[in-house]
Design goal:
The protein is α+β, with helices and mostly antiparallel strands and about 350 residues long. Strands 1, 2, 3, 4, 5, 6, 7, 8, 9, 10, 11, 12 and 13 form a 13-stranded mixed sheet that branches. Helix 2 packs antiparallel against helix 9. The chain is globular, with a radius of gyration of 22 Å.
Length: about 350
């Protein structure tokens, strides 16, 4: 069989597309529907990094303007570039070169990896790398016995309560309405800040979509715990998105997650991303580790494209040393205001 130049170029093109997709974390947070909802409710323009390259890896950001600066920031916490090997680091370096030619001031590039990137990255990237909170995932390809064994000994028994004692189901419309009220009180109780707190308007926009499950746990016929689980387009990966609990709902967290793990596994899902805590090593973070969650390192690159405009604004904040880790510092008030 003779392969013509056109066929060969097409074949190579398909390989490039497949290779690029490997590094795009295919989760609920990266779906077009969710990116558009975030853009709408934060009232920020959704922009693509590669406007003319829609067929390859094309991360999207929210556009923030401040005085004469134009800044691209992540749409949400887990819409990230996945570092899986040395090749993805090379690809990341090529993306950074593309970014350097853009007419913007700064860009924060979110990353996620099974590897600790502050140890893995070459020195030239370590200097602009910043850590974020770790997150965790459950590998649903493992057997039920393996998954059960990965739960800490102390908490394993909490997944085995008699089914006559509780009811686990997908929420009805009436139960969906109750979720908003339960969520508000729960987030206040765990000390979430404004950037982590999501309004009922945002929740309602999400629940209109079909790419999620809202699970409900009733104990003695009363709603105790509710979880919103997002799913990706291929129905392969699921994301733990939001939780809402009564005061004693924490006790049933292992039971709830175990039922969700078994449910998702029965549908053929391969990974269940649990997210992380509200603060480093807090109770939520430890809970996900004890459930058997495997660690994912989250971070990002602080990229300054227009040094002149950046310094012009940053120099106004030199006295605010306690806020110096936020990037870019002049957008801190916009990010932490309760906008959604």
């Amino acid at each position: 069989m003779r392969i013509t130049g056109g066929v060969l170029r097409s074949f190579i093109g398909q390989l490039v597309v497949l290779q690029n997709k490997m590094y795009y974390l295919e989760n609920w947070y990266n779906s077009d529907e969710i990116l558009n909802v975030y853009s709408k409710l934060k009232n920020k323009e959704l922009v693509s990094l590669n406007e003319r390259k829609a067929n390859i890896f094309n991360p999207k950001f929210l556009k923030y303007q401040f005085n004469e600066t134009i800044n691209y920031l992540p749409v949400n916490s887990y819409s990230s570039f996945n570092i899986i090997n040395e090749t993805s680091i090379i690809m990341l370096e090529n993306i950074i070169k593309e970014i350097s030619s853009k007419n913007i001031t700064t860009l924060y590039f979110p990353l996620i990896s099974k590897f600790d990137l502050k140890k893995t990255f070459p020195n030239k990237l370590k200097g602009i790398y910043s850590e974020r909170l770790n997150s965790y995932y459950i590998d649903l390809n493992k057997t039920e016995a393996q998954l059960k064994k990965n739960i800490s000994n102390r908490n394993r028994k909490n997944t085995e309560l008699d089914k006559s004692f509780y009811e686990f189901n997908i929420a009805t419309n009436e139960e969906k309405n109750y979720f908003f009220e339960l969520y508000n009180s729960f987030m206040s109780s765990v000390g979430a800040n404004n950037s982590q707190f999501i309004s009922s308007i945002f929740m309602k926009e999400i629940l209109k979509l079909e790419n999620n499950f809202l699970f409900c746990l009733k104990v003695n016929q009363e709603i105790t715990l509710m979880h919103l689980i997002g799913i990706n387009k291929r129905n392969e990966n699921a994301d733990f998105v939001f939780s809402a609990s009564t005061n004693n709902g924490y006790y049933y967290g292992y039971l709830m997650l175990w039922n969700e793990i078994i449910f998702l596994k029965s549908l053929g899902f391969k990974k269940f991303f649990l997210g992380g805590g509200v603060r480093k090593n807090d109770g939520i973070d430890n809970f996900k580790k004890r459930l058997g969650g495997e660690v994912l390192y989250n971070g990002g690159l602080k990229l300054v494209v227009d040094q002149e405009n950046y310094l012009k604004e940053i120099n106004k904040f030199t006295t605010l040393k306690e806020n110096s880790s936020f990037f870019p510092i002049y957008l801190k008030d916009q990010i932490f205001s309760k906008t959604i």
